[in-house]
């Protein structure tokens, strides 16, 4: 990437999981990509180009013909003409959900998805809002009912976006929350960010026994298994089982509890889900 945020084709290929040759073919046949030229004549690609490529992949995974997929991807990735700053919409979303106003909340999410890439919606709106919601609950400023309502609305919407995330053609990853862990929204965000980078997602959800994760891993044959927990105690309580799991699959620990010492090698994923999706994708491509 250069200082202006534009990408060379090699970086575009790395982030999307599509070969440079196929990217050039999509640019030539369907005008999917709209590069600019550097002073030295190199093609440089924008975030909008990357979003069109990812949209193209999703439509192809749904079984559409390439020409139709390209047409839909070109339309769906166009920015809204009067996009509102994601931070402002985040505040509006929070106000709507705390007021138990689901229709208003859904409308705001629609506006966000029309105005920004999914990565931006996740990293600038959903994840920061979840942190604010949790902190508000801990301070007694958000009731249990408000927290449950907001989480339920967001969970439903995120899982709607996740539809078909197991039909991508890239490497497989299996996602699950540790035993007794009920907080799954951050893990869903991470799965969506990985799907945007070409990963095929297997999702087991909250409070998953380690034996069940192991059985699913043997059936799904993922490149990586990611377990999530908001406290290290969730992982330390299952250290023996996690050690056995790490012997049969490459294991990642995610969430605020990712730094737990479980006596086995595990990749720690405790940052922003979008950043960690980039890091994990780079790591997978190097091995």
CATH C-level class of the largest domain: Alpha Beta
Total helical segments: 13
CATH topology category name of the largest domain: Rossmann fold
Enumerate the spans where pLDDT stays under 50 for 5 or more consecutive residues.
80-84
The total of beta strands comes to: 7
Helix content: 55-70%
Strand percentage: 5-15%
Number of domains as seen in the coordinates: 3
* Rg, nearest Å: 20 Å
Identify the CATH homologous superfamily of the largest domain: Cobalamin-binding domain
Query: What is the terminal-to-terminal distance?
Result: 22 Å
| Largest sheet: spatial strand order | 4-3-5-6-7
What about the largest sheet? 5 strands, parallel
> How does the overall form come out from the CA principal axes?
globular
Question: Which key features would you list for this structure?
Answer:
287 residues, alpha/beta, Multidrug-efflux Transporter Regulator, Chain: A, Domain 2, Rossmann fold, five-stranded parallel beta sheet, two-stranded antiparallel sheet, 13 helices, 7 strands, globular
Structure report:
The chain is α/β, with parallel strands linked by helices. The chain folds into 3 domains: about 10-75, Orthogonal Bundle (Multidrug-efflux Transporter Regulator, Chain: A, Domain 2), CATH 1.10.1660.10; about 85-160, Methionine synthase domain (Methyltransferase, Methionine Synthase (B12-binding Domains), Chain A, domain 1), CATH 1.10.1240; about 170-285, 3-Layer(aba) Sandwich (Rossmann fold). The chain is built from 13 helices and 7 strands. The chain has helices spanning about 10-15, 20-30, 45-60, 65-75, 85-100, 100-115, 120-140, 145-160, 185-195, 210-220, 230-235, 240-250, 275-285, and strands at about 35, 45, 170-175, 200-205, 225-230, 250-255, 265-270. The strands form 2 sheets. It has a 5-stranded parallel beta sheet, with helices on both faces. It has a two-stranded antiparallel ribbon with strand order 1-2. A hairpin with a 5-residue loop joins β1 and β2. The radius of gyration is 20 Å and the shape is globular. The chain starts with 8 loop residues before the first helix and ends with a helix. The model is unreliable at about 80-85 (pLDDT under 50).
């Amino acid at each position: 990437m250069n200082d202006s945020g534009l990408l060379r084709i090699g970086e575009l290929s790395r982030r999307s999981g599509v070969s440079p040759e196929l990217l050039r073919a999509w640019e030539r046949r369907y005008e999917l990509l709209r590069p600019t030229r550097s002073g030295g004549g190199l093609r440089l690609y924008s975030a909008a180009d990357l979003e069109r490529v990812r949209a193209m992949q999703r439509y192809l995974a749904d079984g559409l013909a390439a020409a139709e997929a390209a047409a839909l991807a070109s339309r769906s990735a166009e920015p809204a003409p009067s996009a509102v700053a994601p931070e402002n919409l985040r505040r509006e979303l929070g106000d709507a959900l705390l007021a138990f106003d689901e229709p208003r909340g859904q409308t705001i999410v629609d506006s966000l998805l029309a105005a920004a890439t999914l990565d931006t919606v996740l990293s600038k709106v959903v994840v920061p809002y979840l942190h604010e919601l949790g902190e508000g609950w801990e301070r007694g400023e958000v009731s249990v009912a408000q927290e449950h309502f907001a989480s339920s609305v967001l969970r439903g919407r995120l899982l709607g976006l996740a539809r078909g995330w197991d039909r991508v053609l890239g490497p497989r990853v299996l996602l699950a929350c540790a035993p007794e862990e009920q907080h799954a929204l951050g893990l869903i965000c991470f799965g969506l960010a990985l799907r945007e980078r070409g990963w095929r997602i297997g999702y087991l959800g909250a409070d998953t026994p380690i034996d069940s994760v192991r059985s699913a891993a043997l059936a799904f044959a993922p490149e990586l298994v990611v377990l999530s927990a908001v406290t290290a105690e969730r992982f330390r309580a299952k250290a023996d089982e996690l050690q056995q799991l790490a012997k049969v699959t490459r294991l990642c620990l995610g969430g605020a509890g990712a730094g737990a010492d479980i006596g086995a090698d595990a990749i720690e994923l405790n940052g922003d889900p979008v950043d960690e999706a980039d890091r994990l994708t780079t790591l997978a491509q190097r091995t």
